[in-house]
Amino acid sequence: MAETIEIAKTGRARCRGCRQPIEKGALRFGEEQPSQFAEGMQWAWYHLPCAAKSKPVPLKAAMDAFGGEIPDRAAIEAAMAEADESASVYPYAERAPTARSRCLQCREPIDKGALRVATERELEAMGRPGTGYLHPRCAAQYIEQDDLPTAIRKNSRGLGDADLAELERELAG
Ligand SMILES: [Zn+2]
Ligand SMILES: [Zn+2]
User: For residue 107, how far is its CA from the centre of ligand 2 (angstroms)?
Assistant: First the structure.
């Protein structure tokens, strides 16, 4: 997925992190993601400090590619480093960016844009852990963990309230 940093051309976009408007002329971080309402992709915008907390990995890539001056760069980098340490805490949920993943439990593909649960799995051939994906309805059969919905909710900082509500319905099967 593409990501970018640019100067906000209008003051109309709202930050996906804090839900506040992003001021015209401020730097904003954008991540392209599957549209929830139509075919194709749309941009999700964030204030840089907000992206540092919830999107440290793509923000880093966008900052590396961005040629201009970034105000408060040191503070943003510190927030990214802190977020990065807890970034891949499993299990977490996200929207599938492609239709290429398959559910570890039922082996059926996971639709692009659908909610999926990410968990750690051993890659036997390589002997090291990787990320595997599950339909929310299949997750409880695969992941042995008490109070799975609470654990997933805590780790899924990229999802908004509506996504989380949908996720809990799907987890319940
Ligand atoms: Zn924000
Ligand atoms: Zn499944």
Answer: 6
* Residue 14 DSSP one-character state: B
Structure tokens at 16: 């996906």
Give the end of a domain, one of 67, 85, 103: 85
C-alpha 143 – ligand 2 centre gap (Å): 12
Which structural domain, as residue segments, surrounds residue 35? 3-85
Which of 65, 85, 105 represents a domain boundary (last residue)? 85
Express each pLDDT in 104-139 by its tens digit: 999 999 999 999 999 988 666 655 567 899 999 999
Q: How far is the CA of 156 from the centre of ligand 2 (A)?
A: 19
* Gap between the Cα atoms of 124 and 132, Å rounded: 13
Distance 76 CA to ligand 1 centre (A): 13
